[in-house]
Amino acid sequence: MAIESEVLVVGGGLAGGFAALAAAREGAHVRLLSYKQSTLAQASGLVDVLGYAPDGDGPAVDPFETIPALPDEHPYRTVGVDGVREAMAVFDEVADRYRGAHTDRNALLPTHGGTVKPTARYPASAAAGVASDERDALLVGFEGLVDFDAPHAAAHLENAGVPFEVGGATIAFPGHLTADAKVTRYAKLLDEDAPVETATGATRRARAALASAVEPHLDGVERVGFPAVLGDDDPAAVRESLETELGVSVFEVPMGPPSLPGLRLEDDLYAALDAAGVSMETGNPVVDYDGEGRVESVAIDRNGATIPFAADQFVLATGGLVGKGIGSDRERVEEPIFDCHVPHATDRYEWFDADAFGDHAFARFGLPTDGDLRPLDADGDAEFENLRAAGSVLGGYDFAAEKSGSGVSIATGHAAGAAAAEAVR
Amino acid sequence: MASTPHITVLGGGSTGAGVARDLAMRGFDVTLVEQGNLTHGTTGRMHGLLHSGGRYAVSDRSSARECIEENRVLRDIAAHCVEETGGLFVKRPEDSEEYFQEKLAGCEACGIPAEVLSGAEARAMEPHLAEDVDKAIWVPDGAVDPFRLVVANAASAVEHGARVETHSEVTDLLVEDGEVVGVEVEHASGPGLRVHGTEGGREEIRADHVVNATGAWAGQIGDMAGVDIEVRPSKGVMTIMNVRQVDTVINRCRPKGDADIVVPHETTAILGTTDEEVDDPEDYPEERWEVDMMIDTLSELIPMLEDARTIRSFWGVRPLYEPPDVGSEDPTDITRDFFLLDHDDRDDLPGMTSIVGGKFTTYRMMAEQIVDHVSDRFGVDAACRTADVPLPGSEDFSVLRDYMDDFGLKSPIGRRSVERLGSRAEEVLDTDGPNPVVCNCEAVTRAEVQDAIEGSGSDLNAVRIRTRATMGNCQGGFCAHRLAGELEDSYDEPTVREAWDELLQERWKGQRHALWGQQLSQAMLNYALHATTQNRDRDPADAAESVDFAAFDHGPSEAVDPSHASDTDVATDGGRDGH
User: What ipTM does the predicted assembly reach?
Assistant: First the structure.
């Protein structure tokens, strides 16, 4: 006897999470199956909606105004501007540690490589770093932390034309961290405000010791940026302590994996799913399904045993090439669970562009859908009447070039979840 | 001759660097010029096999004898560049027994230690060999890092007073009164270390003799003085796997053929190769069928290759040469022997000698012969010492193990570093500040990267070949920006950015041939990290138009601070501001 629910979501990233949330809030009984850690740990934690128009030169100021210019097959065109707004309103409610909702305009945030990127929502921890804020800034890096070279990032930001002076300093992080300490190790020291030994041999609390090490470099600036390691459990408290000690605003510069802002967002999302009563089943892959024309159940593999989960409606949110929701071999590109149709050239040498940042066909690999987000087969008919898809498993958009990854996941997840709940009624 | 003869060596591959070292050690005044990085041409694009001679033991016994002799020399003088993997010639049921016996007899005749293993014994040594492999011959093949070897030769040449100029393209040969008297070069960035953005310039380098060791490019150099050098460039593909499926070199025991070798190399295994004549050593097709053939054919020996992950493919161009009267149709019939062309004797053009053909494994022997030739011309009577004096990094190799636990590096990081650096480990790794890992895939630390930057300027591809940084699974996805950060201490930001972009493009070039399965997933992740997280694809610093920062969100404080808010778009309803 299969385990039953009304709506079953496959995939535990932003898309799956917002699908489950939307369906649960509509009153459906929702179960979410996720396999591995979501790709949020690999993302910066910035929540982009749309940073660049398809043929725009510079960053787009207003993502919502830019959406209608997208091609028809873009998932945003399927859910529409109002759908995106509705989903972002849910995001803003769930992720109350995020900022940017006070305006439709994009913010330009410094990257850890030292340029700026447009984004719609940013963690409160990054807010003081917004590049349209004209206050002079100091970036601080740590000797052993190779992902953020503060002097390099500062010089790069200046060459990107930011409207403020910015300098960079590399300091030794107080305490005796090993050369290859993980970002979570820095964060934990600051969360705990543990006693550490300073350069002079004295013992001080970590936050105060860090502030003292930074102070000689301040030189009158009004804000200081650090790599995104300022606390895991309670980043607001860490930031507040540093701001009090230093007497200036403090911000984090988002980084690559493992990304604490990404992990914090995942925490907030899972707390919201919990509060909405979503049942979670994690750690095992969905390997098969049953049904024809209609999905009756999917099956997970748990230590070699196959366990079916039946539902009335299904949402596929397994991610794209990175999350393995889309797979490939030398001959073809596929969606591994339902074998949904993935349009692609037969010659794999047509899957990419010769330039590293060229127009890559692979970046757009994914499922085409109808207006209800149901995946379509090669003939343009819905693969299954009760299967919807959301997030990076969808095709027709290049989130990396557009800077639209989180927004598409949230918007299509929300729409697919709401439609699934509606169909249950 | 009154003053020390000045010899200009063209080509920074194994031959050129070997010639430069030998000349410098024999007291010549030497300038080496190379159009790209060291190893830019064929040397940097080979499978990394240190031949035992076994591959030539049937078809070309004199080459086989040279190979085993030089194999022994390199294990000694270049220990830190060589991994003594051993090699197998593997016979499948359909492969000829007669050829197997010829191979064995050939090895014995050439003095190559050889031992026959049963199929079971071979599989005990290499468990991923196919179940139906009949038997194998073990020979002392090895793996060699061509980058490290050439850099060490160049470093030794410099220690002996040579000048080494990379990124310096020969634009003309200077010919006066029917004699070559030097070269004109175009420096990409001024003499000395390569620095992006520094203005280059032309330089005339006068020389008493020019050695043309440009391999597949030798004909182009010859053309500059109107002499014909009939190099017949032949391309071959090499496909890199993400792990070592084998720890021993695996050769197919059958007559010449494509896709017949797997060489374990550092963290990877390299599949090779094809043999197709091309017109231009710099512009030839890199084709899908070649990659597919490596995987499909070599899967007959090692079945797991069929579904294994490759991280990239690259092509090299063999600088084959045969005297014009031979006229081989098929490039696989062209000899692998080398030829010393004295243009005085051959073309009545004194002042230049070309060296063409040959093999990486015997580079030192080739260099010795050409330097003997040059010494004769100048009446210099100094013995060659390159077979006896270890290369920098390979002196006192026996003490290597003692370094392993020093420098605060965790094993296996310390082990990998010390294996790469050899006897230079202490000098390089003994730094003041913390020494974090910069490239996780290949366990390359900051100290090694800084050492490489010191040796190669702002060129991150040169840092790459010296350290192996960005050469592992992620192909620079996680560490390209870190390397850029490491350059920052020495160079200004636009220079760093240019070097960074160049590295990203170079890494992309080879990955394009591996874009399916896990590596396509990796490529998408890298693209997301570089474009989404770092915005390097649309970096405003690279854009012609400056960004209107004032038009964008000024931060949450603008909602409470009217001086920042531009107009009516301060919204309180969660982002809907009504326009």
Answer: 0.97
Q: Which strand (E) or helix (H) includes residue B203?
A: strand B201-206
Other Cβ atoms less than 10 A from the Cβ of A23: the count is 34
Are the C-beta atoms of B54 and B89 separated by less than 8 Å? yes
Contact check, Cβ <8 Å, A113/B534: yes
Is the minimum CB–CB distance between B486 and chain A shorter than 8 Å? yes
Q: Check if the beta carbon of residue A98 is closer than 8 Å to that of residue A121.
A: yes
In this structure, what token pair is assigned to residue B285?
A: 């097709």
Q: What is the pLDDT of residue B406?
A: 52
Q: How far apart are CA B93 and CA B115, in angstroms?
A: 19
- Superfamily for the B6-41+147-230+336-378 domain: FAD/NAD(P)-binding domain (3.50.50.60)
Q: Give B549 to chain A, closest Cα distance, Å.
A: 5
- pLDDT digits over B58-76, tens only? 999 999 999 999 999 999 9
Per-residue pLDDT at B128 exceeds 80: yes
Residues of B in contact with A329 (CB under 8 A): 516-517
Q: Does B488 touch chain A (CB under 8 A)?
A: yes
Sign of the torsion angle spanned by Cα atoms B513, B517, B518, B521: positive
A128–B574 CB contact, under 8 Å:
no
CB pairs under 8 A between A and B: 264
Contact B438 A349 (CB under 8 A): no
Q: Which residues contact B392 (CB under 8 A, 6 or more apart)?
A: B152, B155, B156, B159, B423, B424
SS3 B520: helix
Give CA–CA dist A190/A218, Å, rounded: 20
Task: Kindly determine whether residue B552 and residue A118, on different chains, have CB atoms separated by under 8 Å.
Answer: yes
Taking an 8 Å cut-off on Cβ atoms, the answer to whether B535 and A117 are in contact is yes
Domain B82-143+234-318: top CATH class? alpha beta
Pick from A321, A324, A403, A406 the residue to mutate for testing the B interface (most B CBs within 10 Å). A321
- Mean pLDDT for the stretch of residues B348-373: 95
- What whole-number distance in Å separates Cα of residue B507 and Cα of residue B519? 13
Report how far residue A341's alpha carbon sits from residue B60's, in angstroms, rounded to the nearest whole number: 54
Q: Does A85 touch chain B (CB under 8 A)?
A: yes
Q: Which residue do the tokens 């009563």 mark?
A: A277
From CA B217, how far away is CA B132, in angstroms rounded? 44
Q: Which residues of A touch B494 (CB under 8 A)?
A: 159
Q: How far apart are CA A349 and CA A215, in angstroms?
A: 54
CA distance, residue A328 to nearest chain B CA (Å):
5
Instruction: Find the angle CA(B402)-CA(B405)-CA(B410) to the nearest 5 degrees.
Output: 150
CB A11 within 8 Å of CB A318: yes
The pTM of the full predicted model, rounded to 2 decimals, is 0.92
A101 within 8 A of B523, measured Cβ to Cβ: no
Task: List, in order of start, the domains of chain A with CATH numbers.
Answer: 3-98+262-424 (3.50.50.60), 112-253 (3.40.50.1860)
pLDDT bracket for residue B566 (50, 70, 90): very low
Q: Distance between terminal CA atoms of chain A?
A: 23
Nearest CA in chain B to A46: B533
| Strand A327-328 relative to strand A333-334, pairing | antiparallel
The reply to whether residue A149 touches residue B484, judged by beta carbons under 8 angstroms, is: yes
Which residues on chain A are in Cβ contact (under 8 Å) with B538? 52, 59, 401
Same fold for the domain at B6-41+147-230+336-378 and the one at B82-143+234-318? Answer: no
Return the domain boundaries, chain B: 6-41+147-230+336-378, 82-143+234-318, 431-540
Q: How many residues does chain B have?
A: 579
Query: Which of B547, B548, B573 to substitute to test the interface with A, most A CBs within 10 Å?
Result: B547
CA atoms within 13 A of residue B218's CA, in its CB half-sphere:
35
In this complex, the residue of B507, B530, B549 whose CB is nearest that of residue A108 is B549
